[in-house]
Amino acid sequence: MEERDRRILAAFEKTKVVRPPRQHLATFGATTLTYFIVTKPAYEELVPKDTESVVREGTVFAQRPEVVTPSYVLRLEGFGDEARRMLEMFASQYGPNAPGLFYAYRNEAKNPDIVTGEPEAVADRITSELNGKGSDLAVVITGPDELWDVCLLKFIYEFTAASVAGNVGDLMGQRLLDPDPAAGIPRAAVRRIEELFAEVESGNMDPAALKQELDRWDLFHRYEDRFLGLFRRGLR
How many other CB atoms are there within 10 angstroms of residue 11's CB atom? Predict the structure, then answer.
């Protein structure tokens, strides 16, 4: 095992969620999550100082979970040969239009603060403040300073995994994972396409984004007349 991999695994083991969020990821909307990652500063071993901790605060924006299929994901960019082969295997085993969920995140981190106190004590103090505010979508994490972003990613992975069952249940309850009889793709995907048409028609979205989504579902031929009609009505 490479040294880099060992450091990542060690960071995973040292990551501790002191205060988990009190809600899971929303199924039918976006989720905004505030995080506080408390670490022992890396310089503390080199320069004797009073006990200090680094507090990194930030926000993770989770888009609404989107229903996708192996065929859809194969049309996305950024996958290597091995990843594409894995998707082809999934498509072969479960079918090209077998539904799955795709989660997208964006992280906005603030500048770190240096505060007095051991990381555990600082984390407990932040936890008490959040509890007093009733902050349901806030998390407090401790871990190694030099790999704090790995700690955040580990939490996001576990938070997503804990949310999947509820998200799938919500979608199944509305039969949105069932195939649409006409389009042959999950009903949730058809609903998403309709939402994108509405966004373009209202002038809030570039038609190119809609065209891209139709291409990813290999459905442009089905919606071509309707799409071109947007331009005939003067939309750009």
Answer: 19
**Within-domain flag for 185:** no
Residues 113, 54 contacting (CB under 8 angstroms): yes
Instruction: Write the CA distances from 132 to 126, 139, 210, 213, 222, integer angstroms.
Output: 10, 14, 44, 43, 53
User: Which token pair is 165?
Assistant: 């069952």
The upper half-sphere exposure of residue 47, i.e. CA atoms within 13 Å in the direction of its Cβ, equals 5
Asked whether residue 20 is domain-assigned, the answer is yes
pLDDT digits (tens, 9 = 90+) for 63-74: 999 999 988 888
Q: What is the pTM of this model?
A: 0.83
CA pair distance 143, 149, nearest whole angstrom: 10
Q: Mean pLDDT for the chain? A: 90
Compute the C-alpha angle 202/206/211, nearest 5°: 110
On whether residue 80 sits in a domain, the answer given is: no
Q: Quote the tokens at residue 186.
A: 């999950």
Q: Let me know how long the chain is.
A: 236
Give the SS3 label for residue 210. helix
Whether the Cβ atoms of residue 23 and residue 62 lie closer than 8 Å to each other: no
Query: Which uninterrupted H or E stretch holds 199?
Result: helix 187-201
Domain extent for 151: 1-65+103-176
What's the pLDDT tens digit per position in 81-127? 776 787 788 788 888 888 889 999 999 999 999 999 999 999 999 99
As a whole number of angstroms, the distance between CA 230 and CA 219 comes to: 17
- Give the model's pLDDT for residue 88: 83
194 falls within a domain? no
